[in-house]
Amino acid sequence: MYSRLLNLASASLAEKEFKQEKSVFWEESNRLASVWKPCAYTKGPTTNLENSGRSNGYMLVSANGGLNQQRVAICNAVAVASLLNATLVLPRFLYSNVWKDPSQFGDIYQEDYFMNTLKDEVSIVKELPSHLKSLDIEAIGSLITDADIMKEAKPFDYSRKVLPLLLRNGVVHFLGFGNRLGFDPLPLNIQKLRCRCNFHALKFVPKIQQVGSLLIGRIRKYEGTRSLVDKQLLGNFMPDIPLKNHNATVGPSRYLALHMRFEVDMVAYSLCDFGGGETERKELQAYREVHFPLLLERLKISKPISPVKLRKLGRCPLTPEEAALVLAGLSLRRGTYIYMAGSQIYGGESKMHPFTSLYPNVVTKETLLTPSELAPFKNFSSQLAALDFIACASADVFAMTDSGSQLASLVSGFRTYYGDGHAPVLRPNKKRLAAILSESSTIGWESFEGRVRKMIEEGQRVRVRGFGRSIYRLPRCPECMCKS
To answer: In this structure, what DSSP letter does residue 197 have?
Structure first.
């Protein structure tokens, strides 16, 4: 779509390589980033459990979605259990026809560590007591679906609708439990508890930690932990893993991780045009007919926005070509190793070619790990996603193409919390980028670079969490982090 810009980018990168010019985006530019320190590990004010000495009943949660949606649901479940003074049964994960993953809590996170970390604030058990297991929870009216609790619900909604059921029946079951707890207003101790859960209590099981350390060791070509992020994600595994069949003296010691959200479902749902002509339009329409029939029904009623307008509004997923141009605009060296997270790229090699023509050292978990190392994770998409989470959170730089994705949000929050001002995140503003790229046939490379750099720099401003904003994505707030 942007062949002229690609040629300019290629020439610029070659010149910078010759002159040994370096990108400035390997470090966070704002010194205020290191002022904020993690402090959610300290206990919050006295909880309901400590006040009453006993629980109001048991709370079951069946969470839907993939790894990142489940993580948010777990933290919200802990918060709701504290609000209701309920005993939380370890959350279950619903089987999805999309994810096709039977993994449960203990397959991904360390159960005992989770329970011990939160034991002083929330009572957590592995299963219901025997006298409650035979209850028909739906028949007694204790089954609560997402239709019963509004999105971004407030504490009052739970005390009014759920607490009476809990007190009457001794148990409630939240089925689905998507984004059903708002971020504000919440008591300080509940907000702090959410942070402790997300940033401290949820540790991956040793199987995931061990293979995650292999991933990082092989791309960095060295052994040993480097940061608080590594320590939290990998535990004690990093120093003990030998780098078999990899030359530790050759190759990069740092890497950029990129979450490229350009899967077929994203592309099809966006209704955007990606330069593939009539073949692409027919292919995506066929996909919508199978996977998004409700979207097509809505389009029959309301006039769709044109692909050109969608792009101007910043509502189109970035193509690999556009992502490569952003990185080139930041003077990222051609030889940089780039870890690509996410699912299969729509269009495969042909769509990736513009990217790899500028940045040939693209690696994935599939290329870094042997088939036998990947075998225990086969058919477990959430466990594979955990490896991507580790590789992205531990990267020297993390770049995203869509700031609205759950993985990007959680990873950037994790890097803010543990990064100590040395974990830069690159967030393109898709609307601004679309305006820059609309001049692709005339814009000079220096002008392109300048505007792209300004866009990224503005996205790196140190932001304190605002009212109603996600505490998982923006942990800079008194309930989560302390200002030194």
So the answer is: I
Nearest to 79 by CA among 141, 122, 112, 111: 122
Encode 44-66: b = buried (16+ Cβ within 10 Å), e = exposed.
beebbbeeeeebbbbbbbbbbbb
The pair of three-digit structure tokens given for residue 279, joined into one six-digit string: 């073949």
pLDDT at 53: 64
* Residue listed under structure tokens 């206990």: 43
Find the Cα–Cα–Cα–Cα dihedral 105, 410, 381, 77, rounded to 10°.
30
Say which residues have a Cβ less than 8 Å from residue 112's Cβ, sequence separation at least 6: none
Q: What is the pTM of this model?
A: 0.92
Angle between helices 381-393 and 406-418 (to 10 degrees): 40
120/50 Cα distance (integer angstroms): 8
The residues near 474 (Cβ < 8 Å, ≥ 6 apart) are 413, 416, 463, 464, 465, 466
Select from 177, 230, 174, 176 the least CA-distant residue to 203: 230
Flag residues of the chain having pLDDT under 70. Answer: 43-53, 97, 99, 222-226, 238-252, 343
Task: Tell me the helix, strand and coil percentages in the chain, rounded to 5.
Answer: 50, 10, 45
Q: Cα–Cα distance between 368 and 185 in angstroms, integer?
A: 44
**According to the model, what pLDDT value does residue 275 have?**
87
**CB of 59 within 8 A of CB of 81?**
yes
How far is CA 300 from each of CA 235, 295, 297, 380, rounded to the nearest angstrom? Answer: 53, 9, 5, 37
Rounded to the nearest angstrom, the gap between the alpha carbon of residue 436 and the centroid of all alpha carbons in its chain is 27
